[in-house]
Write a structure and sequence with these properties.
alpha/beta, six-stranded mixed sheet, 18 helices, 21 strands
Length: 552
């Protein structure tokens, strides 16, 4: 793309005052980054910085993507649209709705901001052809995005993404887009708000995921909850309160939707800074449990009070292990385990989970990074008449799902089942920290960490490709830990789509290297099995230091 000529076209065609002002203030470096390419569209849809340009999230790139999707869907189609609290999410949702309406496609849109799993749910509940969620998940406030779901409620497949991209690439961003007014669409009836009964139905499905089966628990546990200025407040508190968990204190500074995320610049429960205010509330109230959900409420992070009265943040892997063991033990105890049970995890998720699954007689299915691949497995089981065989799935990045009612990770479900699990063990005098130690004592201690390395701009893209090419040449060892086996997923292993992911098994665990699909980062997932935490941390630090030299 000739970014200078495209920049000039935008100056001539863009009418919005804020975008015009931004265009006129660009220096050559900013201009190049804004126009050197089209914002990438893939299985995760679009994600990028909000602003003017072909490589930015704005009403024009959103309209172009929507027109391409409309052309892909064809006539007699319908879509579900949801949006989160991010800057311009509501604007982008209405612009997309207007494009679909102009193409004769029926639009079902939530009347208020709601979590991403409600879009996955509504697509199937309403029999829609596709779903759209305007969100950038846990990214900083300058980002927004455009997720696309298929008629099965799962994020689109690689094949569907390629076909939609082909339609998008045929379009001129100014000349080929059909537009119509959101308000006119509402008046004509081609755009309708989704009835509240659909949200109620979603909440009921969340509550059905209980595995108490009559066991008694004390539901008066003290909970601090933060929606991190996102979409989780209404559905999370509703699901919990309707289930008897009413002792909930909400972090006031993070209660209301706010795309600027003033108290948590990185609104990701994986990051301690995002949890700090919640931890302060815990200290003040003496709460038993801290819950936090990211802006689109598909990720859930927790902290638990230890025997010493301090609060321990738990990783996605640790919470996943606890949930897997809790759900399986309860199903076995009450004879509720299906005959051929299945557990699904991503290849970067702690391998220790496979030992727990095996103990309870579950088949483990490993999939590529991204919860959409877990959703695909659920869909395949459903096609075989085995939907109920899915017991649970999780990924290390704080995504969990214990039911098949949606096809994406669901923090409403996660918050609900975590609170139930916490109360179950607390009622029996066991803390989650103690339960986790018990699992490590039984199956072996394992430490998993994520390190990432950022490379911005067009130069960064090339650098990331060079780094991955170097790793594809092979690695003999990591900090003296011999590599005993390498899995190259770029070759499409185990029936999975080809993906630029490398997993190196070492004498003490594994190292996974991959470029992020949504951010300009190379990610390294380090897993170390050792006698204890101190020994594991020593090995992990050595591997991390060596990776820092390799990836720079």
């Amino acid at each position: 793309m000739n970014y200078n000529s495209e920049y000039s076209r935008w100056l001539d065609n863009v009418t919005e005052a804020d975008l015009q002002e931004e265009l006129k203030s660009m220096d050559d470096k900013v201009m190049e980054d804004a126009f050197y390419r089209d914002l990438a569209f893939g299985t995760g849809g679009l994600r990028g910085t909000i602003g003017a340009g072909t490589n930015r999230m704005n009403i024009y790139t959103v309209s172009k993507a929507s027109q391409g999707l409309a052309n892909y869907l064809g006539s007699d189609a319908s879509v579900v649209i949801g949006y989160d609290s991010r800057i311009k999410s509501d604007v982008f949702a209405k612009v997309a709705a207007g494009v679909f309406a102009a193409n004769g496609i029926k639009v079902h849109i939530w009347s208020e901001l709601l979590p991403v799993p409600t879009v996955s749910y509504a697509v199937r509940a309403l029999g829609a052809s596709a779903g759209i969620m305007i969100t950038a998940s846990h990214n900083p406030s300058k980002y927004n995005g455009y997720k696309v779901y298929g008629t099965d409620g799962c994020q689109i497949t690689t094949e569907a993404a390629a076909a939609i991209l082909a339609e998008i690439e045929k379009l001129d961003i100014f000349a080929d887009i059909k537009n119509s007014s959101f308000e006119d669409g509402l008046k004509s009836g081609i755009i309708v708000f989704i009835d509240d009964s659909v949200l109620t139905s979603f909440i009921e499905e969340v509550k059905k995921q209980s595995v108490l089966f009559g066991d008694e628990i004390n539901r008066d546990v003290a909970i601090v909850y933060s929606p991190l200025n996102g979409t989780g407040l209404k559905p999370v508190t509703r699901a919990l309160e309707e289930s008897g968990f009413t002792n909930i204190t909400v972090v006031e500074e993070q209660r209301n939707p706010d795309g600027n995320f003033p108290t948590c610049p990185f609104p990701n429960p994986e990051i301690r800074e995002a949890m700090d205010l919640g931890l302060q509330y815990c200290e003040k109230t003496g709460a038993d449990l801290l819950l936090a959900t990211d802006p689109d409420a598909d990720r859930c992070g927790i902290a638990v009070k230890t025997a010493s009265g301090e609060y321990q943040l738990m990783s996605g892997n640790e919470v996943g292990l606890l949930l897997l063991d809790y759900v399986c033990s309860q199903r076995i105890k009450h004879n509720k385990m299906p005959e051929h049970p299945v557990f699904v995890k991503t290849v970067v998720t702690m391998d220790l989970a496979e030992k727990i699954a095996e103990h309870y007689g579950l088949e483990t299915v490993n999939v590529l990074t991204g919860f959409k691949f877990i959703g695909e497995v659920i869909g395949k089981l459903e096609a075989q008449g085995r939907e109920k065989d899915y017991v649970c799935g999780f990924e290390e990045s704080y995504g969990y799902l214990t039911g098949s009612y949606v096809r994406d990770k669901d923090a409403v479900n996660a918050a609900f089942i975590i609170c139930e699990m916490f109360a179950f063990y607390k009622t029996r005098g066991i803390s989650l920290s103690e339960k986790l130690d018990e699992l490590f004592n039984t199956y072996g201690f394992c430490l998993n960490t994520l390190r990432f390395y950022e490379f911005g701009g067009s130069v960064g893209m090339v650098k990331m490709q060079e780094i991955m090419a170097d790793f594809h040449c092979g690695v003999d060892n990591f900090a003296g830990q011999k590599v005993v086996k390498t899995l190259d997923y770029s070759k499409g292993l185990d029936g999975l789509p080809a993906s630029d992911v490398l997993k190196f098994y070492t004498e003490t665990g594994s190292v996974v290297i991959r470029p992020s699909g949504t951010e300009p980062k190379v990610k390294a997932y380090i897993s170390v099995t050792a006698k204890n935490r101190i020994e594991a941390e020593k090995i992990e630090e050595a591997i991390g230091a060596e990776l820092a030299e390799k990836i720079k």
